[in-house]
User: What shape does this take?
Amino acid sequence: MRRPFFDRLVFAIGLLFATMPVFAKMQAKPVEWAIDGKAFSGFIVYDDATSAKRPGVLMVPDWKGVSDSALAKAEHVAGRDYVVLLADVYGKDVRPKDDKEASAQVQSLYADREVLRARASKALEVLRAQAADAPIDLRTIGAIGYCFGGATVLELARSGADLAAVVTFHGALNTDKPAVRGNFKPSLLVLNGADDSYVAKDIPAFEKEMNDAGVDWQFVNFSGAVHCFALPDAHNPPGCVYNELAMRRGERMMRVFFAERFGYMLAGSPLAKK
Assistant: This one.
């Protein structure tokens, strides 16, 4: 017995599924570059649900460097709003397995800020170069960093990098190469744990440095938060502990700050440029 209606229904459903687009997903593509013969390796991260251009964000992770946790954070930050380059400033073959190995890398780079700045600057150049294949609006480039990464993007800004905005999460503030008036181009948002004993002593000198250099800066303290508050894997009490409330508040502030500085609405919808 033929069932014309049923047959037509099955055919229609099959046709619908056959013509549906493949669901978009978060892209995390390896990217490699070199400085003076030394290889580096990071990831370009973005949601390909839309081809609309969006701001590019350089992200320097905490002292553990490029890791699964750092990549998950980059994907979380990127969402539908940004194209993120998860930057490597240690080297392709350097992936610290523990705090001791991470500390050795950090101390080496803190001791030579010119090398740190050069590596961060190269990563920024690599981010811009990805506009050939990723939906980056080259008019809107920013940088963020966590802990050591926060210190790194601050050094990048101090070096005179052409950025619209920089955000640091529980980043170190001290430097032996302070900002020079007229050379610090981005607006700056510093997100800090009010109980972070690692950086408290450096805050007065940092504020004076920013004021002397004429920087457009904001400094936010989160009560009850210590170092590492924006890192879900952080659990090294009492000094380095994840704080979900502070992280979520900080991320909202970051997105509003970027929206203002980039001239973009949240969720990547472009506003008319003034």
Remarks:
- DSSP finds seven helices and ten strands in the chain.
- The longest strand covers residues 136-146.
- The chain has one domain: 25-267.
- The domain at 25-267 is CATH 3.40.50.1820 (Rossmann fold).
